[in-house]
Amino acid sequence: MRVLGIETSCDECSAAVVVDGHTILSNVIATQIELHKPYEGVVPELASRLHTEWISQVVKAALAKAQLRPDEIDAVAVTGRPGLLGSLLVGVSFAKGFAASLDIPFLMVDHIRAHLYASQIEHPLAYPYLGVLVSGGHTVICRVDGYDQIEVLGTTIDDAIGEAFDKVAKHYGFGYPGGVALDHLAKEGDANAFLFPGPTLRTKDHPYDISYSGLKTAAINQLESFWNGTSAKSAENIAASFQRSAVNMLMKRVRSALEETGMKRVSAGGGVAANSYLRSELNKLSEGGYEVSFPSLKLCTDNGAMIAALGYRYLNDGIRSDFSESASARVTAFKKQYLQRVKP
Ligand code: KG4
Ligand code: ZN
């Protein structure tokens, strides 16, 4: 089954062709980063306008790279939620038109589930595994029992981890987008230069919840209080110290969740899963006998291949979306399937 995957939820305009959920024939990602750079953040109105201008070319490029004609595609999957509504609507409308014109199945998939599924394309893990979704908009620790069976164990109670990276980077002028720039700077820095606050106390009801606003505020506004007094107050040192605190906070929750649930496998996904320090800390878990998997860098950040691959799973199970369904900016309740099971 050749599935065309379309992703336009934020500032990447992407289309991919994936065969049977595993073989990536093409994964074209046209990033809008340079066009949002002057504003130091994604401008929703601009994003949707650019998707409208680019989507047709991006899909054509994905088909050309896959060496396929449109009529050789078996189904179209598109990000239906969550994200910037205007941007989502561009991808969803295009996908509906494409599917209708060829009379092939149309599937709207959840962006968060797709990030959590991305590692399965290249390095499939047996279920259940601990899923760690770390992106610009979300921080979720969950039990994954199947491609659509996700039970949330903990989430951020305020900022997402990627948002904290981006805000700290923006405040210090490290560059845009902030996460990648901060990761690069941190490689040259001393992580002991600033001893930022550690994780907040665990609550009985929500033991795996996490908070990033305290760390973000400490790194932005109270640098002096956490300085070790000897190392330089350099960009590299701020980046390294912040990055280590942010990742260690997450790893502490990940380790507790693994120990307390007894799960033996862990998989990360989302833009922050591209972070070099997080990847090395997750890899260390394998020394303790855990199986660790994360997507290659290109499949961590937003891309059409993860949408096509997850779409294939629904398709294979006889699940389709209806043309009457629309995009939504909101996160779905994780326990509830929102795609319709249809009679084959
Ligand atoms: O998954 P993604 O492309 O979009 C969302 O669904 O949010 O994630 C984007 C986020 C941004 O916050 C970006 O700064 C962060 O991922 N990011 C990184 C790195 N690469 C991307 N954060 C830390 N280190 C990186 N290497
Ligand atoms: Zn994303």
Please give a structural write-up.
By secondary structure, the chain is an alpha/beta fold. The protein has 2 domains: 2-115 and 300-340, Nucleotidyltransferase, domain 5 (2-Layer Sandwich), CATH 3.30.420.40; 125-294, Nucleotidyltransferase, domain 5, CATH 3.30.420. 42% of the residues lie in helices and 20% in strands. It has 13 helices and 12 strands. It has helices at residues 33-36, 44-66, 85-102, 111-117, 119-122, 161-172, 178-186, 213-221, 223-226, 235-261, 276-284, 297-300, 304-316; strands at residues 2-7, 12-19, 23-31, 75-81, 106-110, 129-134, 139-146, 149-155, 265-269, 291-293, 319-320, 340-341. The strands form 3 sheets. A 5-stranded mixed β-sheet has the order 3-2-1-4-5, sandwiched between helices. A hairpin with a 4-residue loop joins β6 (129-134) and β7. α4 (111-117) crosses α13, α6 (161-172) packs parallel to α8 (213-221) and α7 (178-186) crosses α10 (235-261). It is globular, with a radius of gyration of 20 Å. The two termini are 16 Å apart. Mean pLDDT is 94; it is low at 334-344. Zinc ion (ZN) binds at residues 111, 115, 135, 270, 302.
The class by helix and strand makeup works out as: alpha/beta
Q: Write down the overall mean pLDDT.
A: 94
Taken in chain order, the helices and strands follow as EEEHHEHEHHEEEHHHHHEHEHHEE
Number of strands: 12
Bound small-molecule species:
5'-O-[(R)-(carboxyoxy)(hydroxy)phosphoryl]adenosine, zinc ion
Beta content: 15-25%
Number of domains: 2
CATH class of the largest domain: Alpha Beta
| Neighbour order of strands in the largest sheet | 3-2-1-4-5
Could you tell me the CATH topology label of the largest domain.
Nucleotidyltransferase, domain 5
